[in-house]
Every structure is written in structure tokens, then in C-alpha cells.
Sequence to fold (332 residues):
Amino acid sequence: MCTYLTEKIAISGSAKGGSGWFRVTDGSVYFDHPVHAPYGHTLNIDFLAPAQGPSARVAVELSAESARALMKAIEAVLDSAPPGLE
Amino acid sequence: MYDAILAESITITGHGGDAIEAYAARPMRPGPAGGVVVIHHMPGYDAPTKEIARNFAVHGYNAVVPNLYFREAPGASPDDAAATARAAGGVPDDRLVGDVAGAVAYLKGLTSSNGKAGTIGYCSGGRQSFLAAVSLPLDAAVDCYGAFVVGTPPEGMPLKVGPIVDKTPQLSCPLLGLFGADDQHPSPEQVAELEKALQEAGKTYEFHSYEGAGHAFFSVNRPAYRPEAAMDGWQKIFDFFGRYLA
Fold:
């Protein structure tokens, strides 16, 4: 199905796309058909800079299992970072 | 038989007089030929959708695919454009109708036109094909697994569409519906509800649901592709358009 189920978040950082690094301001997280990954549905994350147009996008399409593993890894790394660095 | 076709990007006049990008595929025979507006799926104005248009041209139809995401993302790659349109909640219904009307006008304005035009759409485009057929005078329409003709998007979905089954009495042409029995959007129950509405309104329609197929079974470049259902579906489409558009 085309779920359209999307969580949008404001983010701050940089991403590297086809034309190099750019500042990202927005993120979209959704579970839907991938464009490229060989699955029926994937957890998709778009790192975006809408002010720079639709092509300012770094996209990933992950299997649900990979996405959950990524989530845990991010939490583990952030939780173990020395205090005061965030 | 002379079988040349011409396929190219063009500009057509869409909703509100906007100039929008489109992809046209036409047989290079003098005609007369029926016209098909191909309404792309939610993932956008992509290479497989353009191939569908070329397939119609090979079979003797003038075909055109309006780029429904052109306004949000002119010149962007189809996946980036689809991501942008998706984040915006999809294509507004009135804009879709205006863009299809522009595509129909383009087809009927071709010197090879036989004066007839129809629509076919996939996924979100399936609903939009039905929407066009209840909003515009058409000669045939095909709905390939369009969700939310019946039913409302679940809570939390930012999709700005509602059910349009109540517009069934205004359907202007015969309708062919092709569905996957394993699909949940539309579910077999929703397909049955649409069929009931068509019967009650006395409309000409033909529905086929394929066992072992789910959503997007025509998508040749996706795991959802089901060759048997897709090949039979193509036959049904050409038979249907042969009766009402040729």
C-alpha cells in the first residue's frame, strides 16, 4: 500500500548528496514502498533542505529490521558519549 | 505494418492555466487514434510510467502522462519530486482534475485523434482516474488498485484525500477496475463496496481481482510485480480500450 504515513521533524546538521555537502533543516521518516531497496515496504528517511529545492535530499530506504538496529545503535552511541559533549 | 512511434517530453496546459511538463507517446500513423491519459503512481513521473505510455502508442493509442508533481519539483528527479509531493500530502483533487482535463484537451487536439479519450491510473493514480471519470466527460477509465475511492485514510496519515464513492452516479464512462486480492488499500471489501455503488447507479463496469497479487502488481521494477496478473491485466486493458476508445 501507499501509506503516506510520515513523521516530519526539524533537524540541524549536514548531509552529503550528489552535489556535495549541504545544511539540512528537515527530516521525513516514513514506512512505504521503496524506490530502490528490494522490499515491499521500507523505513525511509529523507534528510532535506527544502529552501534549496526538492533535489537537496539525501534518502535512505532500510528494511524494518535494519531500521530498528540503526535506532538502537544511535541510542547506544549517544547514551555512551561522555557528558557535556552533546 | 508501419509501427513507428514518437515519444517525447512536451508542455501542456494544466489546472489553472499552468504550463506543466508531460510525456507524450504517439503512433506515427495518420490515425484515427483514441487517446489515453496515463496517471502516474504515487512514486511519481518515472521511467516505468513512461514505458506504459510507449506501450499504448505501440498499440495504436495517443498517450500522455502529465507530471503531477511538476509544480512542486520542476526538473527534479522523479524520486525527489515524489518525496516532496508526499511531504505536502499528495496532489489536491481539483488540481488533478484540471491537469487531466488539460491532458485530454491535448489528446483531442492532435490531428490523428478520433475524438475519444480515456484515463488509466495506478496506485494513487487509480483513485485519480476514477476522480477524473466522475468529474470530466470521458469515454473510458481504468482504475488499477486505487486506494481511498472507498474509505478514509487512517488517522495520522497526512494524505489530504477523502472517499469519492458518493460521486459514482456522475461517472461519465465505462470503468475497468483491476485489483489484487491480497491488497488492503483498497481491500476486497472496499472493492465490493465500489462495485455495489456502480450497480446501484446502473453504470457499465468490469472488475477483476487477481489472487496471489497485492498492491502495485503492474510495477515491473518492484517486488510487488506479479507477471501473471500484470499480463492478464494488460489484455483486459487493451480489450476494454478496444471497445470504448479505438
Remarks:
- The CA atoms of residues 63 and 69 of chain A lie 10 Å apart.
- Residues 6-80 of chain A form one domain.
- The mean pLDDT of chain A is 91.
